[in-house]
Amino acid sequence: MCIFTAVFHDAIPMRVLLSQVKIVDPRHHTLSAPCDILIVNGYIDRIADRIDDETAERIELPHAHVSPGWIDLFADFGDPGFERKEDVRSGCAAAAAGGFTEVCLVPNTIPVIQSKAEIDYLLHKSRELPVTIRPLGAISKDLEGKALAELYDLYAHGAVAFSDGWQPVQSAALLLKALEYVRAFDGTIIQLPDHQSLSTHGLMHEGIHSVRLGMPGIPAISELIQVQRDMELARYAASRIHFTGISTRQAIEAIARAKQEGLQVSCSITAYHLALTDACLEDYDTNLKVIPPLRSQEDVDALKQAVAAGIIDAFATHHRPQDIESKQLEFEYAAPGMIGMESFFGIMNRELATIDLLDKIAMLTTRPRSLLGLPEVEIAVGKEANLTIFDPDKEWTFEEKHIRSRSHQTPFIGQRLKGFVYGIFAKHQLVLHSSSPE
Predict the structure, then answer these.
(1) Does pTM surpass 0.70?
(2) How far, in Å, CA of 360 to CA of 370, rounded?
(3) Under 8 Å CB-to-CB from 153, ≥6 apart: which residues?
(4) Which element (helix H / strand E) includes 47?
């Protein structure tokens, strides 16, 4: 067994040997028998049943599986402007601990990610880190929803898609302009499904539990109306739209119908929307205050059925760190969001236990990269190593020692999860957990 390290290696050995790992390849829908992978200078040099190389650092991990590196479609590192909650370095550490080699960051920063300068800042700050940052450029200037940001300039300098992040565009006219504009370079608009005219004063899902707890509700129709409106705009513009954090049965059904009609629509879900319901808010735990809110058991069941039916395209962590001061308040005044990277796979894999492993990994690798038009990641000789290393069957208890984020605001501490991430190999760097699964 290797000794785990919690820091990014400044200089990794020139030769690393991953011993007796199973390769999970969603592109070919295969799971290999145990094999060895030799990585030399960051590139895959050999793949064979057994490789003897005394000069390589041998990594032996119980029941280890290796897949193309995972990508997170929607996360918040708070940098620049909110570094007290998270910064690029701590966010990348959390991502690596969660198995993510690439992360799409929302533009809700100060300043907003709306020009070459902000994109260059993120890319430069993460240049030496093993996790690749994929900026999401703002749709509207200053996220005000009034005028378009310079979308093509953002695209030309590294924005992989466009979103106003936690403040979804409410103006139909502005969103239509954005959809028409990005069509010229096959860009993607990402929307949080929240019609704020119906949800502004809500604190949790509108239903029997909101009535019983005496809290104003966010109705499921606020999500449905946003989804239906935006899909019709995408239809009119002949453009592409993605909804992140889908949480209701009605919205899923609407998206399924739109896909059957051939619309360029896709969607992703979080792990916590699979694991928690509005009934969990009984103790007014502010860690459970999220947008979109935790929904009913009926909605959770619909999400799981939609994954099985292939309606859901990808996953997103919605990692949204908050400091203690933002959470230790009355529920009404607490900031929304929870951390979601380090525990993501264990929660998702536990809740989707009946879904084939290859399908789940595809939703973390090939499908999101295809949605964003990013190059495929191959586990093949001669290719640069971009790998996630994990045990899909390991049951373990999630504890604070597993958290690398600056924020520890999560309701999952102490829970038993299924599926442990050992670490990643990306950008010529090996990052492994310092904490054991138990």
Answers:
(1) yes
(2) 15
(3) 115, 116
(4) strand 43-48
Q: Where are the beta strands (DSSP E) in 261-333?
A: 265-269, 314-315
Give me the domain span that covers residue 24.
Answer: 15-66+379-432
Residue type, 418: K
For residue 235, being part of any structural domain is answered with yes
CATH number at residue 95: 3.20.20.140
* Domain CATH for 412: 2.30.40.10
What is the C-alpha separation between 115 and 176, in angstroms, rounded? 21
Q: Which of 14, 16, 41 is nearest to 432 (CA)?
A: 16
4 in a structural domain? no
Instruction: Give the pLDDT confidence of 2-44 residue by residue, as tens digits.
Output: 333 444 444 455 899 999 999 999 998 888 899 999 999 999 9
Name the amino acid, one letter, at 346: G
The answer to whether 138 and 110 are in contact (CB under 8 A) is no
27 and 114 in a single domain? The answer is no
What mean pLDDT comes out for the span 383-406?
A: 97
- Report yes or no on 7 lying in a domain: no
- Which token pair is 217? 């509700």
Instruction: Output phi, psi for 336, to 5 deg.
Output: -80, 155
How confident is the model over 185-206, as pLDDT tens digits? 999 999 999 999 999 899 999 9
